[in-house]
Amino acid sequence: MVEIGVLISGGGSNLQAIIDEIGKGDIRGRISLIISNKEDAYGLIRGKNVGIESIFIDPKKFPGMEEYNLELVKEFKKRNVDLIVLAGYLKILSKEFIDYYRNKIINIHPSLIPSFCGDGFYGLKVHQAVIENGCKVTGATVHFVDEGTDTGPIILQKSLEVKDDDTAQTLQKRVLEIEHEILPKAVRLFCEKRIEIQDSRTRISEVVI
Q: Which of 11, 106, 158, 185 is deepest in the core (most CB within 10 A)?
């Protein structure tokens, strides 16, 4: 059984998608800890509603982000966490955090990486940029986290058509539906040990280990 830790900053709809798939028995893992950097994050309530330990750790109580990240690692280590999922987490992970969980941290991004990603591309800003650039397709990407911003090996992507009457808000809503599909799938693949990284690219095995 793979122990999963989740980092959130907000509503946690992607977290809920993972909780739902685990509840169906489709993922060989369990969420052992949810941590938020925001005290009022609704994702904490989502976790508590199903009996998952869900805690707020205040970054302001630490001298800097390095110390804060080390506290996160400590909490995850206490629960023997094997996989970290960033489900709408809006803080940067430190090098120490990434080194400790190398190739064991996954993130969801609301565009087809390498388009509209990196510094400054988050939330509605991503979808507004897609529309302003006249893109005909967009989508979402699940990737491993490395030291860069949205630069880790891509695990899964799914696209959709940008409609002529789309706004950033309508596009965000439709892309979110894709996120709810591919993030739990990536978690399932990780738990089944079907993801292999070769030269910064991933290969998905058909064989469940």
A: 106
